[in-house]
Structure formats: C-alpha cells, structure tokens
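for the recovery benchmark. tokens below, seq after
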C-alpha cells in the first residue's frame, strides 16, 4: 500500500466503507445496550408504579387519563404478605407494563389497604360486604382478579394458574368478553 510523504498509509474506498459500516454496527449495538439497561433500571417492577383502585367504588368506575369511564378492564388484588403474590409479582407487573402501553386497562388494588369511600349525607358507597356480594365471594383472596366488561361485573379469577391463564389470554387477545 502506498504512503503519503509524511508516512501515513493511503486508504482505498473499500477500506473506508468497511470502517464506516463497522462504526454504524457498533453504534447500533451500544444504543440497544443502553435501551436494555434503561428498561431494566426503570421502576415498572414496583406496585406503586401503576394505577390503583383505592376504594371499592373505584373498582366499578375506573377511568383513563382523560377521565373517560372505561368499560373493559381488570383489577388485580395483591397483598405484600401473600407468598404467591410475591412469587407472581414480577410476572404480573411485567404483563401490566406491556399490556398498558397502548391504553391503561389493567389496574391494581392492595387487598390490605382498599377501603370504602367516605360518603356525605344521603350518599352510599360500596363497603367490603357490598363488594363481596357483588362479586359473589366470601372474602378477598389475593392473588385475585376482578374482570369488568361493558361496565358490569364479568368474573373473578383466583389462584396462580388461573391468573396466569387469564393474563396469557389477554396478551394473546383471545379473552372473549373483551373481544365483543
């Protein structure tokens, strides 16, 4: 290869193009690495990162960011003292993170801290007893999902296997009540 008078080697166009291509590949690889690290470092793995139903009334009247009432959604009841909930936490929150990207339709409720709404004179609110009667259960058993379709109670899903199957069907878009 020829050299310039100062001793530098001359580069042919093919070698220069090869260096540019390798540089682009390295840059794309670094961007992907940073995106992966950012995703792993974000706080989506914490219950507090998601919208919660704090009262029994809210479970039946969930709204989107624009305060429009939603008609099809699910509320996941968890407890920080429930071993099964702790084992499922990362999977459930990973699902919520992906499922809620388009529109928020999967909500959380802490079974230990959900309460009845404070009411004024002449108002009524759902209490735990009213809520349990409405979902036809005797108690809240975390992990548990309450499904609402067309603004009406659809079903209760209890237990790890049933919840995992439900989440899989939502993810696949094959949950019939949401597809009508």
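predicted aa per position
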């Amino acid at each position: 290869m020829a050299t310039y008078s100062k001793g530098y080697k001359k580069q042919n166009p093919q070698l220069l193009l090869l260096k540019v291509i390798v540089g682009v590949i390295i840059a794309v690889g670094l961007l992907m690495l940073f995106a992966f690290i950012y995703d792993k470092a974000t706080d989506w793995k914490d219950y507090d990162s998601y919208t919660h139903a704090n009262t029994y009334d809210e479970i039946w009247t969930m709204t989107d960011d624009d305060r429009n009432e939603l008609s099809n959604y699910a509320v996941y009841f968890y407890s920080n003292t429930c071993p099964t909930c702790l084992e499922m936490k990362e999977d459930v929150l990973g699902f919520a993170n992906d499922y809620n990207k388009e529109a928020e339709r999967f909500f959380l409720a802490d079974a230990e801290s959900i309460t009845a709404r404070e009411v004024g004179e002449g108002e009524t609110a759902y209490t735990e007893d009213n809520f349990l009667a409405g979902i036809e259960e005797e108690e809240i058993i975390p992990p548990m999902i309450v499904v609402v379709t067309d603004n009406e109670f659809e079903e209760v899903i209890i237990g790890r296997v049933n919840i995992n199957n439900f989440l899989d069907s939502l993810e696949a878009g094959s949950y019939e009540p949401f597809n009508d």
